[in-house]
């Protein structure tokens, strides 16, 4: 990563312009899809498409704006992901008006995920430049993922206890989470890589370089939270979108503190990717297999308080206290 402040500011502003510009464009068709008879599937598919955009934006900045150089295998990886993103956008728009189902999008997600995972393992040493080698600090990656899993299970106990047959719900939930994790590593990798490469690998070190480790990660959390606005209005909580937006601003900021800690501790992008995957799996299970939830003022405030209690203390770990020069990982 370049250490010149002017260059970093240009990279950040260009990333945000591409990212939010594409999200605004895609959201037009996502809102249109809510009027269709098959709206639930279509909106969910657009939710998956959203997850491609941060990495796509970062790749455009790295390759076309800042002209960083990478090994041929990494360049190929980037090209495949970028092309898949553009194809996915095109197909998602067609689905709204002509196709009527999300089969093609699902196939694209699974096929590209399997291909990219194979490339990662085949040329694993080339991807150390992206902090995408599982061999790097594997014990630290395992530690932060297990730590997050324990925190998430504790946070989710009230949701599990709200179901009448608690034992079946907890056992079944854990089994479903484990199977979901395994499936998504191979068939949903593009989605979680799509977010974490953009947010953690690209944007986090740059914001931390500009504003310091703590302020940088909090600013990132707020950006990540507002990025969810169209999803709150159409997918997550169309009945209570304002509460949903406020919740995501708070949740992404607090969770972002932990993800920032995990990434800095492990220096491995697999850590936030796996944590993000665990978080989404547990959230869906806790919500009875649905993305949609309805907020009340009480659930909003309680949710914010719980997340703040569990995640904000990580701001005081040694990873956030180290000199700011270590916040960026040079390419």
Automatic annotation (TrEMBL):
The keyword Disulfide bond does not apply. GO terms for molecular function: metallopeptidase activity. The chain crosses the membrane at residues 12-32, 44-65, 77-98, 104-121, 141-161, 167-194, 215-236, 242-262, 269-289, 295-316. InterPro entries: MmRce1-like, Rce1/LyrA-like_dom. Its EC number is 3.4.-.-. Keywords: Hydrolase, Membrane, Metalloprotease, Protease, Transmembrane, Transmembrane helix. Residues 181-281 form the CAAX prenyl protease 2/Lysostaphin resistance protein A-like domain. The keyword Cell inner membrane does not apply. PANTHER family: PROTEASE, PROTEASE-RELATED. This is CPBP family intramembrane metalloprotease. It comes from Romboutsia sedimentorum.
């Amino acid at each position: 990563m370049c250490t010149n402040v002017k260059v970093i500011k240009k990279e950040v502003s260009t990333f945000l312009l591409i990212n939010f510009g594409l999200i605004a464009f895609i959201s037009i068709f996502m809102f249109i899809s809510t009027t269709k008879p098959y709206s639930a599937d279509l909106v969910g598919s657009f939710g998956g498409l959203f997850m491609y955009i941060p990495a796509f934006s970062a790749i455009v900045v790295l390759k076309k704006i800042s002209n960083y150089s990478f090994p041929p295998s990494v360049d190929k990886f980037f090209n495949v992901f970028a092309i898949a993103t553009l194809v996915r956008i095109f197909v998602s728009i067609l689905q709204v008006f002509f196709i009527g189902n999300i089969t093609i999008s699902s196939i694209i997600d699974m096929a590209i995920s399997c291909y990219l995972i194979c490339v990662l393992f085949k040329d694993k040493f080339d991807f150390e430049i992206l902090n995408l080698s599982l061999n790097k600090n594997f014990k630290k990656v395992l530690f932060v993922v297990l730590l997050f899993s324990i925190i998430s299970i504790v946070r989710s106990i009230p949701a599990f206890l709200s179901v009448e047959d608690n034992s079946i719900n907890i056992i079944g939930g854990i089994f479903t989470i484990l199977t979901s994790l395994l499936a998504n590593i191979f068939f949903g990798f593009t989605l979680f890589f799509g977010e974490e490469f953009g947010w953690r690998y690209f944007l986090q070190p740059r914001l931390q370089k500009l504003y310091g480790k703590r302020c940088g990660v909090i600013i990132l959390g707020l950006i990540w939270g507002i990025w969810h606005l169209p999803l709150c209005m159409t997918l997550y909580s169309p009945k209570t979108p304002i509460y949903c937006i406020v919740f995501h601003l708070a949740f992404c900021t607090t969770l972002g503190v932990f993800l920032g800690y995990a990434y800095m501790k492990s220096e491995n992008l697999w850590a936030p990717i796996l944590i993000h995957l665990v978080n989404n799996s547990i959230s869906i299970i806790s919500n009875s297999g649905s993305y949609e939830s309805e907020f009340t003022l009480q659930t909003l405030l309680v949710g914010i308080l719980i997340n703040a209690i569990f995640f904000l203390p990580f701001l005081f770990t040694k990873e956030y206290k180290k000199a700011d020069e270590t916040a960026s990982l040079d390419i």
